[in-house]
Amino acid sequence: MEGFDVTKNQNGEISILALKGYLDAHTAPELENAFQQLVDEKKYRIVVNFRDLSYISSAGLGVFMGFIEDVRNHGGDIKLTNMTPKIFRVFDLLGFPTLYDIVDEEQSAIEKFNNA
């Protein structure tokens, strides 16, 4: 069983969550906690980097749905970057590209925030 890890970094006003491993029903609470911490700290400009994520389940996707409204209500956003084609397909099937800003590179997402 592959594990899951969330690494949190700051780039000025922007919080970056880097995901690694398997995001499923067992590991989704870890990501929930990371998001909740950012919201509690009033950090609403969030970039999630999927470069090292190898799997995401519906439970993992649910975490994003659970926080996007709260984040946007506070004038922020969650931007998604560096998805592998396999991970992007999962998001695409569920219509996420119409709800979220999905960009190729973390730097592009940061620039989008800075230019907003």
How do the strands and helices of this protein lay out in sequence?
Blueprint: E1 4-11, E2 14-23, H1 28-40, E3 45-56, H2 58-73, E4 77-81, H3 85-93, H4 96-99, E5 101-103, H5 106-115
Parallel strand pairs: 2-3, 3-4, 4-5
Antiparallel strand pairs: 1-2
Helix pairs in contact: 1-2
Summarize the structure.
With about 120 residues, this protein is α/β, with parallel strands linked by helices. It contains 5 helices and 5 strands, in the order E-E-H-E-H-E-H-H-E-H.
Describe this structure in words.
29% of the residues are buried. The protein has 116 residues and is an alpha/beta fold. It starts with a strand and ends with a helix. Strands 1-2-3-4-5 form a five-stranded mixed beta sheet, sandwiched between helices. The chain has helices at residues 28-40, 58-73, 85-93, 96-99, 106-115; strands spanning 4-11, 14-23, 45-56, 77-81, 101-103. It has one domain (4-115): 2-Layer Sandwich (Transcription Regulator spoIIAA), CATH 3.30.750.24. Helix 1 (28-40) packs parallel to helix 2 (58-73). The longest helix is centred in the middle third of the chain and has 16 residues, at 58-73.
